[in-house]
Amino acid sequence: MREHFFEVRGLRLHARLRGDGPLTLLLHGWLDHAGSFDLLAPLLPGRTAALDFRGHGDSAWVGPGGFYHFIDYLADIDGAIEALAPGEPVRIVGHSMGAASALLYLAARPERVTHLTLIDALPILAPAAEVPARVTKHLADLRSFSREPRAVRSVEDAARRLMRNNASLEPAVARILAEGNVGPVDGGLAWKWDPLLRAHSPLPVTEEVLRQLAAQVKQKLLVLRAEKGILPPEAELRARFPMLQFDLQTIPGTGHHVHLDAPEEVARRILAASG
Description:
The chain is α/β, with parallel strands linked by helices. The chain has nine helices and eleven strands. The chain has an eight-stranded mixed beta sheet with strand order 1-2-4-3-5-6-10-11, with helices on both faces. The chain has a three-stranded antiparallel beta sheet with strand order 7-9-8.
């Protein structure tokens, strides 16, 4: 395992690399980190790169006056692929927010992706009618948000907080997420993620925009659903995304972090679908 840092448009990003050969890019969920793939990555062939998105894990926070627009995560993906596999297509495995951003990236850059696996995720649709209220909330957030790192008492305290916010997390999984998500600050420990990540986005991807982008995706996708996850029933998913071709598979006994609950089964299904 190698910790690797590189720049995307002047912002220092971090990725955790393993192995050699064709690249699989691993993309974590909101407020998670590259270490969330520590159990899955060693089970995949070739080379893996688990990326820390901007503002997460060991990647840099955006500078003063900046914000985390969803489209910026696509730029992180594009920059990571160019830095780690210049001129070569890659396989992508994304979880939650990482999966949603990867799907839109595939729509924009189909030639750079050989296969996409989405773990317990498809993009959230925001009705256009919600945008005016979100803009108002966004401006209020920018005036009130403190970017001081949010303290935690210990890794155990962080794990307990994660379990309170996500009832499907097993203690061992919460521990893995907590260990990679806290770091030292003056006088103690704090979450690594930028508090600004929790501010309201002023311009979410609306349903109409998402449908236009999704219509550009021609590849068949693998969608791995958690038995105790966040995805709606299959019939509803197919009705919402009739333009997408996807194989939906439910992994028994898993919560939202399917790749931590059942890494061997996730790896087996990825390899069966993508070779």
